[in-house]
Design a protein that fits this description.
Oligomer: single chain
Number of helices: 0
Shape: globular
Helix content: under 10%
Structural class: mainly beta
Strand content: over 45%
Order of helices and strands: EEEEEEEEEEE
Number of strands: 11
Largest sheet: 7 strands, mixed
Length: 118
């Protein structure tokens, strides 16, 4: 049993910043990768950023240099700092994790809306 809860979404003007947070609970003693995906209407979920337990990161080309992912292993949380936001960043953002001993199983949060608009 794993639960993920996102927070921090909202409405922001282009060029602004938001910080998304995700808290994991339940059977999470062996979290491997944590990350963020996003989805806009008519699109599949797209990887935004991910981070391993050891701190190795991976970013979508479209967000490199603007977004920063971080995690606190003790708290089982992962954050996404989003700077220089663009209208095309508008999406529902979903927190994701997998477990070291069951890496093929994906766990998802409920999503948090990010809207970038003037």
């Amino acid at each position: 049993q794993v639960q993920l809860v996102e927070s921090g979404g909202g409405l922001v003007q282009p060029g602004g910043s938001l910080r998304l947070s995700c808290a994991a609970s339940g059977s999470i003693f062996s979290i491997n990768v944590m990350g963020w995906y996003r989805r806009t209407p008519g699109k599949q979920r797209e990887l935004v950023a991910q981070i391993t337990r050891g701190g190795s990161t991976n970013y979508a080309d479209s967000v490199k240099g603007r977004f920063t992912i971080s995690r606190d292993n003790a708290k089982s949380t992962v954050d996404l700092q989003m700077n220089s936001l663009k209208p095309e960043d508008t999406a529902v953002y979903y927190c994701h994790l997998n477990l070291y001993y069951a890496p093929a199983t994906n766990y998802w949060g409920q999503g948090t809306q990010v809207t970038v608009s003037s």
